[in-house]
Amino acid sequence: xxxxxxxxxxxxxxxxxxxxxxxxxxxxxxxxxxxxxxxxxxxxxxxxxxxxxxxxxxxxxxxxxxxxxxxxxxxxxxxxxxxxxxxxxxxxxxxxxxxxxxxxxxxxxxxxxxxxxxxxxxxxxxxxxxxxxxxxxxxxxxxxxxxxxxxxxxxxxxxxxxxxxxxxxxxxxxxxxxxxxxxxxxxxxxxxxxxxxxxxxxxxxxxxxxxxxxxxxxxxxxxxxxxxxxxxxxxxxxxxxxxxxxxxxxxxxxxxxxxxxxxxxxxxxx
Length: 270
Fold this sequence. Notes:
Elements: E1 4-6, H1 7-15, H2 17-25, H3 34-56, H4 62-80, H5 86-91, H6 93-115, E2 123-131, E3 138-147, E4 150-157, H7 165-168, H8 170-183, E5 188-195, E6 201-207, H9 211-230
Helix pairs in contact: 1-2, 1-8, 3-4, 3-6, 4-6, 8-9
């Protein structure tokens, strides 16, 4: 079997080749930020809720949805740990975890009340794989929700997404390409954002994909293939939002991060 290139890792390579190298080539795993576990909790809740809807057309109760989100968050945190910022450490791990768990519950309730009633799922957590005959690996991924003629991906965020987020999503392009190859039809794609503002809100962004989008994605796959063959992985621009200890678990040990200059001072009297 060929090595696997995950759809989500394509975006990682685009943001920072060095992060891609350490995570997917060297296999170095670092704890994610606490926000990632919020997403895991919400994902567990949404999956169970929509699975129930597939089975008998009904949704779980709001209390069940909240419990699933809280439990999913806790499991992810216990399994992977979390990378805390300096501010979060000052607040305390227990307090940060409690706030994050509450956020997962809050956003899962938001999805249950506003989005789940409108979704008509045919499957959830759809695993797919595409053998790329001209490359040394296969492309794989898991789509959150499938409807007739549509693939949806659930996102949690602390701020509203840009209007073109669905148009630019490489992840959605990969999902649409997989469905096109496997099913013979190109679905529409949708990002379901759960935005944790003072008053939480949803933002549903839909888009379409074409052969041109798939060709552009495969060009990126080719670049990743060439980089892996050559062992060349360009680091992120230091001005990038993700090149910081808050968003990158490799930041503190990254060879491309500027360090304070150490000046040797001889001892003795002046």
